[in-house]
Amino acid sequence: MLKISLENIGKKFKNEWIFRNLSFEFSRNEPIAIIGPNGSGKSTLMQALAGAIPINEGKITYSNQEKTIPDENWHELLSFSAPYLELIEEFTLAESVNFHVKFKPFQNGLSTSDFLQIIELEKHKDKPVKNFSSGMRQKLKLGLAFYSQTEVLLLDEPTSNLDQKGFDWYISQVEKAIKNKIVIVSSNEPKEYIFCEKHLNILDFKIKA
Ligand SMILES: Nc1ncnc2c1ncn2[C@@H]1O[C@H](COP(=O)(O)OP(=O)(O)OP(=O)(O)O)[C@@H](O)[C@H]1O
């Protein structure tokens, strides 16, 4: 079973430590909320977990049955949804999905049309993403993350821009995902991580001068 272990990790920008001496372990069936005020370093930690930015100290290890997975293979295992990750604006919805599945196939042989029904956007399949509303974009990003055949789900501000119906959809989807994946939610909004019993508060890993 996949695990992600953090051993005394630290990240700084210029001279400012964003977090330091952070040790933690993530595993399946134990969703974790990364919490802390605006600007505390939640997104920075999420990006470090994804291997998208380097850390300055310590070690992040992905391992399966004690076998270490090389850094360059982490991306195959993870799905990441975040407001700052871009969609390809020129593509239609159907083109976006077909492009995505070339790199990250859907789990359980799900078809594009089934997927479009699940994200409740089938009637917009030929619309360019550049004409999508913010909530439609968010459902597309979340849907791709939930339904790709990956084992780690990184969700940064998952319900931003979602209305109540979209929020309820998110909760039902994430509850399914928890059973099969390592789920990590970064958030300022308690109701979007209500299913997380354990919290990682970035403020606990700030350096006291
Ligand atoms: N590339 C960068 N270069 C320099 N400083 C950065 C960089 N990225 C982030 N920071 C700084 O790191 C700190 C943490 O930012 P981060 O975006 O991780 O916070 P956050 O907890 O996700 O905030 P929010 O809740 O507002 O989304 C901030 O002070 C930010 O300005």
UniProtKB/TrEMBL annotation:
> Looking at the Swiss-Prot or TrEMBL record, what is one Pfam family this protein matches?
ABC_tran
Query: Which domain of life, per UniProt?
Result: Bacteria
User: What region holds the ABC transporter domain?
Assistant: 4-209
List keywords of the entry alphabetically.
ATP-binding, Nucleotide-binding, Transport
Tell me a Gene Ontology molecular-function term this record carries.
ATP hydrolysis activity
Under what name is this protein listed? ABC transporter ATP-binding protein
Species of origin: Lacihabitans soyangensis
